[in-house]
Specification:
The protein is 21% helix and 40% strand. By secondary structure, the protein is α+β, with helices and mostly antiparallel strands. The protein has one domain (3-68). The model has no long low-confidence stretch (mean pLDDT 87).
Length: 85
């Protein structure tokens, strides 16, 4: 993964793309796409979907998107240190 992009707040983005099968439009097929992308605009995903629409036969039905930062601030857990004796 590209550290430079991650430091610019790009996140690991996963999209489940449902599309109509070209030979059987009544059936849906699932495609999983995953890249680093910038939420909430998702320019990389939008570019991919535009490519899909222009060049592939399967008409898009729906897209579900999830993203997660790979680099996050440290989290502190506060607790009590018990005696070691």
């Amino acid at each position: 993964m590209n550290l430079t992009l991650q430091l610019r707040d790009y996140r690991l983005t996963t999209a489940e793309i449902l599309y109509h099968m070209p030979d059987h439009p009544g059936l849906l097929q699932s495609y999983i796409w995953q890249e680093l992308d910038l939420a909430p605009q998702y320019p990389v995903l939008r570019k991919f979907l535009a490519f899909w629409t222009r060049n592939l036969d399967g008409k898009l039905h729906s897209v579900r998107v999830g993203s997660s930062r790979l680099i996050t601030p440290a989290q502190w857990n506060h607790g009590t240190l018990h005696s070691l004796n």
